[in-house]
């Protein structure tokens, strides 16, 4: 196909925009409090609604694309995403903004698996397929890096809605170019979508993600020590009933979903794929890689702005080399596979990240950026290596006709890994922060100041100058303690996952031919 690289460009543009959109909102949240009068609960829903809709519908939309056509679904999703972006930009109140964010999530769920499955069906030669997926993965990483920079520039000159309105012309370009150059592909033997499976998938993923996110904001995950010291278990059950019920429901619904797939002639997900190490090990290592990457983005956003005092734009520019090196790593991964094998590349990428986090455990309240830069680049390259090879493993292992469903499984693991990373590693960070703050500034560190370093900075504004300075110094020192502990934990986890990848992907051929999808890969 002569225009297959044009197809890749269209898919990469759509993916770049989705990744960018995931990061720019965080910079706009403080402005929404002033302009729309959003309260704390509404802010949480504004931030989380997109992820709930996206994660819950990925599996269903991936299967829908396999059935009605991936190009058709991508174009429908792009049009919906553009329209929802315009509504979001001009939302007059928090309620409409939350609804528009939900619609953006629905549209995003149609675009993500469609782009990757189109790439899988267009690039049938194994070497080109790996290279194309590397470029696709690189654009996704670049979007995460560019998002804070674009958001900072727009918010510095325009109103908060500009970070969403910019999506409209880009999606119009995706629509026009996609209509002309993308080929249509679908599963010729696909049956109807099983509505019960779709409901179980949506309900299970949404409740599981809700339990993790809500547990991070409050309750069990935010303060796990309460599980050990609470005197009255009934009180714990009442205070955290929503998290506990949602978590149990998520496990139950996802279990029923898996069970139902084993009973259907045309399942939404062929669960037998998880018996292949090439598939299951790639899904697991991808989930744990984004688990750690999400923690890094969380830590560095706070560190650069609240400890070092940099502006959002400066913080975004500081992290840009890491994301761009991730794009380079995605492109280089295909060549590296030919030298050290698939398991070697994934393990190397994870080990490179482990080394970067080991360095982050030495950061202090002042920073020479030039000493940080090499480790941002090394970590970014490692992420590019890992995601590229794992995504290629997942798609090459699954039958080409079910590429949308396979891509959806990979993207769902990505979403779950991000939510778990922020919840669990964020808990490690906050626990160490509170312990450090209590040890140095007990008299002034109460209420809001103990919740986070951002809360401490706000609390300091209401204190006399001497007490405020004491609190700020103590909060920054306590955050550094938390940063060190979290970085060490993350580094150790990455090394363990690198060993899992080295063993789990052993024996997977450097070049996975088309016929391998019907054979028993390791």
Which keywords apply here?
19 helices, disordered C terminus, mainly alpha, 522 residues
Describe this structure in words.
Helix 1 packs antiparallel against helix 4 (94-122) and helix 4 crosses helix 16. The protein contains 19 helices and no strands. By secondary structure, the protein is an all-alpha fold. The radius of gyration is 23 Å and the shape is globular. It has helices at residues 4-35, 40-68, 70-89, 94-122, 126-157, 162-165, 167-181, 195-217, 219-222, 226-229, 233-239, 241-261, 277-307, 312-360, 369-397, 403-440, 448-451, 453-460, 465-504. The longest helix is centred in the middle third of the chain and has 49 residues, at 312-360.
Broad structural category: mainly alpha
Q: What number is the mean pLDDT?
A: 80
Strand content: under 5%
Q: Main beta sheet, described?
A: none
Radius of gyration: 23 Å
Helix count equals 19
Number of beta-strand segments: 0
Query: Which percent bin holds the helix content?
Result: over 70%
Cα distance spanning the termini = 31 Å
Low-confidence stretches: 219-231, 515-520
- What general form does the structure show? globular
User: Helix and strand succession?
Assistant: HHHHHHHHHHHHHHHHHHH
Helix-strand blueprint:
Blueprint: H1 4-35, H2 40-68, H3 70-89, H4 94-122, H5 126-157, H6 162-165, H7 167-181, H8 195-217, H9 219-222, H10 226-229, H11 233-239, H12 241-261, H13 277-307, H14 312-360, H15 369-397, H16 403-440, H17 448-451, H18 453-460, H19 465-504
Helix pairs in contact: 1-4, 1-5, 1-7, 2-3, 2-4, 2-8, 2-16, 3-4, 3-7, 4-5, 4-16, 5-14, 5-15, 8-12, 8-16, 13-14, 13-15, 13-16, 13-19, 14-15, 14-19, 16-19, 18-19
């Amino acid at each position: 196909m002569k225009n297959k690289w044009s197809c890749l460009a269209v898919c990469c543009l759509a993916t770049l925009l989705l990744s960018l959109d995931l990061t720019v909102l965080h910079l706009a949240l403080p402005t929404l409090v002033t302009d729309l009068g959003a309260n704390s609960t509404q802010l949480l829903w504004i931030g989380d609604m997109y992820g709930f809709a996206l994660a819950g519908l990925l599996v269903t939309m991936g299967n829908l694309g396999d059935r009605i056509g991936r190009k058709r679904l991508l174009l429908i999703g792009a049009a919906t995403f553009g329209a929802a972006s315009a509504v979001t930009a001009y939302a007059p109140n928090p309620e409409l903004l939350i609804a528009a964010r939900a619609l953006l999530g629905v549209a995003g769920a149609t675009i993500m698996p469609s782009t990757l499955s189109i790439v899988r069906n267009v690039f049938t030669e194994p070497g080109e397929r790996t290279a194309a997926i590397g470029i696709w993965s690189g654009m996704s990483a670049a979007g995460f890096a560019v998002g804070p920079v674009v958001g900072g520039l727009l918010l510095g000159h325009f109103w908060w809605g500009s970070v969403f309105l910019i999506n409209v012309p880009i999606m119009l370009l995706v629509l026009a170019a996609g209509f002309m150059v993308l080929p249509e592909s679908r599963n010729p033997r696909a049956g109807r979508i099983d509505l019960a499976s779709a409901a179980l998938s949506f309900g299970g993923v949404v409740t599981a993600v809700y339990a993790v996110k809500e547990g991070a904001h409050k309750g069990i995950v935010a303060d796990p020590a309460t599980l050990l010291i609470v005197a009255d278990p009934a009180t714990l059950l009442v205070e955290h009933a929503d998290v506990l019920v949602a978590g149990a429901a998520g496990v139950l619904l996802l279990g029923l979903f898996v069970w139902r797939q084993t009973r259907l002639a045309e399942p939404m997900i062929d669960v037998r794929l998880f018996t292949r190490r090439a598939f299951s090990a790639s899904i697991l290592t991808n989930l744990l890689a984004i688990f750690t990457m999400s923690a890094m983005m969380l830590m560095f956003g706070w560190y650069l702005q609240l400890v070092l005092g940099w502006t959002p734009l400066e913080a975004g520019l500081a992290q840009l080399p890491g994301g761009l090196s991730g794009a380079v790593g995605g492109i280089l991964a295909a060549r590296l596979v030919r030298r050290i094998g698939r398991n070697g590349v994934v393990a190397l990428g994870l080990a490179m990240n482990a080394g970067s986090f080991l360095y982050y455990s030495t950061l202090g309240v002042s920073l020479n950026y030039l000493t940080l830069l090499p480790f941002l680049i090394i970590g970014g390259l490692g992420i590019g290596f890992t995601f590229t090879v794992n995504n290629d493993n997942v798609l090459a292992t699954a039958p080409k006709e079910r590429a949308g469903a396979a891509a959806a499984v990979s993207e769902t693991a990505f979403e779950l890994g991000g939510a778990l990373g922020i919840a669990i590693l964020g808990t490690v960070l906050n626990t160490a922060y509170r312990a450090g703050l209590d040890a140095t500034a007990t008299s002034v560190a109460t209420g809001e100041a103990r919740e986070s370093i951002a809360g401490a900075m706000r609390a300091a504004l209401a204190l006399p100058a001497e007490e405020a300075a004491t609190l700020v110094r103590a909060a920054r020192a306590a955050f550094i303690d938390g940063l060190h502990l979290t970085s060490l934990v993350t580094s150790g986890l990455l090394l363990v996952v690198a060993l899992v990848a080295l063993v789990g992907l052993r024996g997977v051929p450097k070049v996975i031919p088309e016929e391998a999808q019907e054979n028993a890969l390791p």
